[in-house]
Write a structure and sequence with these properties.
The protein contains 14 helices and 14 strands. The protein has 379 residues and is α/β, with parallel strands linked by helices. Helix 7 (154-168) crosses helix 8 (182-198) and helix 10 packs parallel to helix 11.
Length: 379
């Protein structure tokens, strides 16, 4: 009996040594000591200026939290994947992040790409927090219980744009243009509805344009012909810069009001002098918040540049998910979801948590205008 027990102990010890030496076994042990956070968004192409700031924000948060001992005593690690803001690519991106064992995902950046990926994450039980996907259906449809965001939705953004056009600019004839995408068209539909419901102005033109088109002369001519006093545009900066530039070259002084897809320094760089006077909604300015000041300074120190679009929203999103995992005591999906909805966390956006739909409480939009080559908050 003693000999058999000794033999069994030796045999088990040999097996442990064998499997510990195995790459697969070692990898699984190593992986168990890591919290994996996926970062999905446009990291290349025309819309990279929206996605890359999120990567940098997450890097800074992860570096800081790892220096303090990590999450649940484990180091956090980033899995960065590019979706180019295209739904068909986002499906592959999401599938890859799931296969790589992501415990949570920060992203995606564009609403269409986010919607395409969410079902994959939901089926895998992975919490997803976007710093920029504003399409209302993402939280209001009830289809994506795993989705959260640190930015307000397009209905709030469209309401601000319409109220500004009607009550501040006092216009009566408005053209509503969009890029046919989930984000741009969704915002435009809300804007159109709010204008019509107000009875204060008329939608004289409602039309979609094709992203990447060579020439937008046709829609600009329609804006002129319909005598629109203002344009409300739903979409991103490449098309907006082309349309605005063409309008100004034709000596049209029509107000141009757009969204957070245009409130980006790249729009100003591309449109140049024609960007002057353009209005765009964007996340509320919280740059005087001490945590925002610290985050911005950390970015300047690490990357020798000012942060780009949605940086603070992404910083807050990364903090929120790591805080939720810490409070939950694990990466268990249900526990993390509960923590996101009940546990406040101090962020550059303020002290936030999420409502039952997944929207961040206390987060909203402000109106900005390009003045002397920079966006300035005006309301």
């Amino acid at each position: 009996m003693q000999k058999e027990s000794s033999f069994r102990r030796s045999w088990i010890a040999a097996l442990i040594v064998f499997f510990a030496a195995s790459p697969l076994f070692s990898a699984s042990l190593f992986a168990a000591d890591i919290i994996k956070i996926g970062i999905a968004g446009a990291h290349s192409g025309d819309l990279a200026s929206y996605g890359l700031p999120t990567v940098k924000a997450a890097e800074l948060v992860i570096k800081d939290i790892n220096a303090k001992g990590g999450v649940l005593g484990k180091k956090a690690e980033l899995l960065v994947e590019d979706d180019v803001c295209k739904p068909e690519v986002a499906i592959n991106t999401a599938t890859k992040l799931v296969s790589e064992g992501a415990n949570a995902v920060i992203g995606h950046i564009c609403s269409g790409a986010t919607k395409a990926a969410l079902g994959i994450y939901n089926n895998a039980g992975i919490v997803t927090i976007s710093p920029s996907a504003t399409n209302p259906d993402l939280t209001q449809s009830g289809l994506y219980p795993n989705f959260f965001r640190t930015i307000a939705s397009d209905d709030a953004q469209a309401r601000l744009e319409v109220d500004f056009a009607l009550n501040t600019l006092k216009v009566k004839r408005i053209a509503v243009i969009h890029d046919k995408g989930d984000y741009g068209k969704g915002l435009a539909e809300y804007a159109k509805k709010f204008i019509e419901d107000s009875k204060k102005a008329k939608v004289v033109l409602y039309e979609g344009v094709t992203p990447g088109a060579v020439d937008y002369s046709a829609v600009v001519q329609k804006i002129r012909r319909m005598k629109a006093e203002a344009v409300i545009y739903g979409g991103y900066h490449p098309e907006a810069s082309s349309i605005v530039s063409l309008m100004r070259k034709k000596k049209m002084n029509t107000f141009f009001i757009s969204d957070d897809g245009v409130k980006d320094d790249t729009f100003i760089k591309v449109a140049g002098k024609y960007a002057e006077g353009v209005y765009a909604t964007g996340p509320k300015d919280t740059t005087k918040n001490p945590l925002a000041v610290a985050a911005i300074e950390a970015h300047k120190k690490a990357y020798d540049a000012d942060p780009g679009a949605f940086f603070l929203n992404a910083y807050a999103a990364t903090q929120a998910v790591l805080n939720a995992i810490q409070k939950a005591g694990s990466t268990n999906y249900d526990a993390v979801v509960k923590a996101l909805r009940t546990e406040y966390v101090d962020t550059p956006l303020g002290k936030i948590r999420f409502d039952d739909r997944g929207d961040a409480i206390g987060v909203g939009f402000s109106m900005y205008q390009v003045r002397d080559g920079v966006y300035v908050q005006v309301q």
